[in-house]
């Protein structure tokens, strides 16, 4: 019996000594981190906190200082990760919430930004000056497609879109689109006047994004297309369901598209990976693998893009898509590639320029390798699109 009492006493004494030593380590770490924080030595502060955490010395105060250092050095993804650690222990930390909001806006992650904003008090919300009408952004696009094919006229594309915040966790993006192109074909071409049949398509698109948690979003989209060609009119309805999970440097998304497109049954399964090696938009990659099932026939399509910042307010993005893109759905079902002639390969370059605090200009050029469905010959097409996005 005495032996058991001594054993218990020894264990309790040992635990007390370990706790005391841990508290001393934490006090020393907090003191050192505070000195680095006050000196503005952000890189050294980041290195010190990371080493302390590796050595099992951790606290919300250390995480907050590391998050602030990451934010000031431009690694917004890492900063968000640190602030989220703070909020796990101290969900009422208003400053950590506010900084998490700003960091998410810097990488265009509105869902997570508004999720954090929902926990802020009224005075702080007034300071960050959110749009009183819930408008997030508005966009205009205008493009021309130039086919190297005597039996295809130039194609024209227009889009007007707007993003709305319906609640702190629910957002709605809407777009209205118009595509027109004259199709010339042996047998009904008016060679004298060079008039053909017009392929005209009017479209409406809506996508909802719901923040289930600070880093998990549920996606839902609907796309309606009214297509007229020759004497035929088609009504097409497409839907999308998906989920997105954000991590420190990688964002993962899986979704399924489904519906009827013209006279074909469509299902498309997508897996997408976005990678931010620097934790910001100075360098990023977007990779997407898709399996398109069109009336029972499967096609594999792969899309890859790389973007980077080249000047203070200028970004370049290079993209390529491989595979038969006949009736392919891109950008969460926003763009539907169901033109008369299917695209077999596409690549291009985009330039983004930040004009002031609100306007983002973009100029896109794409080269497409297409196949004439009536003559079974290949031809090239060049596309140019100019757009502007106004962020409120």
UniProtKB/TrEMBL annotation:
Signal peptide (from-to): 1-21
Gene3D superfamilies xref list: Tetratricopeptide repeat domain
InterPro entries: TPR-like_helical_dom_sf, TPR_rpt
Phosphoprotein found in the keyword field: no
Keywords: Signal, TPR repeat
Ranges for the TPR repeats: 60-93
Transmembrane feature ranges: none
Protein name from the UniProt record: Tetratricopeptide repeat protein
